[in-house]
User: Which sequence fits this backbone?
């Protein structure tokens, strides 16, 4: 009997579990503490009314034999696929076929699962700092090599710094796969067309593949690209992940989708066909009720209600950014993103700051070092709490700093 020994290489538990466990331990010691979480990016606003109406109506459909639905189509109902094609892509000048879109239970699963398509020996490039799923999942697949210090030997790190605005350039060394996330989690950096075109040009030239996580595209307020396919040439080198979690409050409902263009071919193999084969074997689709709810996000009322909620969170992000900036901290993000990234004061490490903020201000955030070696000395706060709690948290932090 042999286990997957790569799991033993992952030394700590998943970042957000560490944060939750430390917070829970503090709560046990201090049962009356008024803890405010600006840690994990979990939404607090209720689902838009148009989504609630769609959920209710779909529940009614399920209660009547004439409209009851069993297994959903493996890759998504036509009504949702059409809405996605039209509203997320055609409206931005991107034409996709319905069979290039695969509805899923949220972006996180597929950003990890996509690794099924690639050989273990591929070299993976990750931005640093980065959403930890890309790193941890590739380590589980055996693509990490060994952890020496806080670097995995087989990964190529694309380091984000204040100097490059947390927008690294394409790799200068060989990489088969590049994981990108824009607007970025955790730094909040957003990439413009020129910067993204550089990655697309590089990937096509080197026969590499970009795994593009666009889970936060709805937060873009300027003219940055929402999809990598807005960049000419991206269909031959990129897979894109989208999520309804932060766009429409679906963190608890679970729905997203992955785009695998038919033009994406390597070694004579269609990645679209491979992904279809993978999904039909390992995934049984997303419930009718959930897909009806997701479709309501694209109705005129649903879209307006989502925009209102996003504006609410962006306002929180601005409150955090302005508050910390006025306390003398160097901050990034907030403009096209629900995240604010800042440098820990007084040379503190990320986890030292976590402990200080929890103990002295009862505010929970996410230590930057949990997002990779280049995140050490930085910290992330999310805008997903209520406006009142966000203001209260920032008032406490301003007096702490
Ligand atoms: C985060 O806080 O980075 C996100 O909520 C995590 C996720 O989307 O899985």
Assistant:
């Amino acid at each position: 009997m042999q286990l997957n020994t790569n799991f033993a290489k992952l030394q700590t538990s998943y970042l957000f579990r560490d944060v939750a466990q430390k917070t829970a331990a503090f709560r046990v010691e201090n049962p009356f503490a008024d803890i405010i979480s600006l840690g994990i990016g979990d939404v607090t606003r209720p689902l838009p009314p148009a989504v609630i109406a769609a959920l209710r109506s779909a529940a009614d459909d399920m209660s009547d034999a004439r409209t009851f639905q069993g297994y959903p189509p493996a890759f998504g109902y036509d009504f949702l696929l059409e809405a996605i094609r039209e509203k997320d892509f055609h409206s931005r000048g991107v034409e996709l076929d319905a069979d290039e879109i695969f509805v899923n239970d949220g972006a996180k699963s597929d950003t990890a699962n996509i690794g099924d398509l690639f050989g273990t020996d591929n070299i993976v490039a990750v931005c640093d700092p980065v959403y930890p799923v890309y790193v941890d999942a590739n380590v589980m697949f055996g693509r990490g090599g060994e952890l020496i210090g806080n670097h995995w030997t087989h990964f190529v790190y694309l380091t984000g710094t204040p100097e490059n605005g947390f927008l690294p350039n394409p790799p200068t060394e060989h990489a088969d796969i590049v994981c990108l996330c824009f607007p970025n989690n955790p730094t909040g950096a957003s990439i413009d067309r020129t910067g993204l075109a550089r990655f697309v040009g590089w990937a096509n030239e080197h026969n590499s593949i970009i795994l593009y996580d666009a889970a936060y595209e709805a937060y873009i307020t300027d003219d940055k690209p929402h999809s990598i396919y807005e960049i000419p040439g991206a269909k031959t080198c990129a897979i894109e992940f989208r999520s309804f979690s932060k766009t429409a409050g679906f963190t608890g409902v679970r729905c997203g989708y992955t785009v695998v263009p038919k033009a994406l071919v390597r070694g004579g193999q269609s990645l679209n066909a491979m992904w279809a084969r993978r999904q039909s074997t390992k995934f049984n689709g997303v419930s009718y009720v959930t897909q009806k709810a997701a479709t309501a996000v694209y109705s005129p009322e649903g879209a307006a209600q989502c925009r209102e909620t996003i504006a609410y969170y962006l306002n929180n992000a601005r409150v955090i950014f302005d508050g910390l900036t006025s306390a003398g901290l160097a901050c990034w993000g907030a403009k096209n993103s629900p995240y604010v990234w800042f440098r820990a004061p007084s040379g503190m490490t990320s986890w030292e700051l976590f402990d200080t903020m929890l103990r002295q201000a009862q505010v929970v955030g996410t230590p930057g070092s949990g997002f990779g070696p280049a995140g050490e000395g930085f910290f992330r706060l999310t805008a997903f709490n209520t406006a009142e709690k966000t203001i209260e948290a920032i008032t406490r932090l301003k007096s702490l700093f």
In short: Residues 40-42, 108, 131, 185 surround D-malate (CB under 6 Å).
